[in-house]
Amino acid sequence: MRENGCGICESHVSISADNNRSDYDRADGSGYKSGYNGALYRDSNERLVIDSKPESECTTPIFRYKFDTDFIEELSIFSKVHQYDERKKFKESWELWITEHHDIVQTEINRLQKLSYEGDILDKMFKSARYYFRKKDETPKPQKERKVYVNCTKDFLKIIDEFIVQNLEYKPSDGFTEFCKTHISDLRMEINHLLRNQMFDSNEILEKVKKTYKNRYFIIQKQF
Q1: DSSP 44-80
Q2: CB neighbours of 95 closer than 8 A, spacing ≥ 6?
Q3: Phi, psi of 149, rounded to the nearest 5 degrees
Q4: Which site among 9, 63, 98, 192 is 20 to 30 Å from 170 CA-CA?
């Protein structure tokens, strides 16, 4: 008996609906072989089984096997309906669900096995429902409000350009410091412009002006 929800053996997988057996039975403990296709049906003991049949190998290697989008949608609905079920009740509901949804379960099993998935498919389905989709938060995340970009005035850019052309010997950091010392009134006018355009954070204003100066410096430097 395994504690992980379900099992696939080399010849078949059986799912017991017996209340005394809380997990799925693996018939012989061996692994499911690569390159097999399975048919899902109930045996004489009313157990759901996958009967393995040889299938051609898939030549394209796949490293992460994802469920089909339509199957994920159905699996997500089941998981949310039984989101707060305790484990035993969840497992009972799961066994009923895979029986009632035989066609889509069988289709997904066939699809994954044709892709040469070697794992335990029903176990993969169960764990996805129990441990992923059941806990997945589907509450839409609020979108961050995009800030409106505020340009510096053309007059201010012209003043920066003239200063840089006359002081190319300065590196950008030193040149910006000198510019701030010698153009206080121009800076005040530009700060008022930024404030009028809803830019109220002093650090944001400083970074805006500093970045503008640096960008203008490199543009002009390329011309010389």
Answers
A1: TTS-EEEEEEE-PPP-S--SS----HHHHHHHHHHHH
A2: 15, 17, 48
A3: -75, 130
A4: 192
Residue 47 has a pLDDT of 61
Q: How far apart are CA 155 and CA 180, in angstroms?
A: 16
Residues contacting residue 163 through CB under 8 Å, at least 6 positions apart: 175, 179, 182, 183
pTM of structure: 0.40
Closest among 15, 13, 205, 22 to 119, alpha carbons compared: 13
Determine if residue 219 is left, alpha or beta; phi over 0 gives left, psi from -120 to 50 gives alpha, anything else beta.
alpha
List the domain boundaries for the chain: 13-133, 154-221
Q: 38 - beta bridge partners?
A: 52
Are 91 and 22 a contacting pair, CB within 8 Å?
A: yes
Average confidence (pLDDT) over 73-83? 90
Which helix (H) or strand (E) segment is 198 a member of?
none
The 10s digit of each residue's pLDDT in 1-13 is: 444 444 333 333 3
Given this model, what pLDDT does residue 149 score? 85
Going by C-alpha positions, the residue among 182, 204, 205, 184 that lies closest to residue 193 is 205
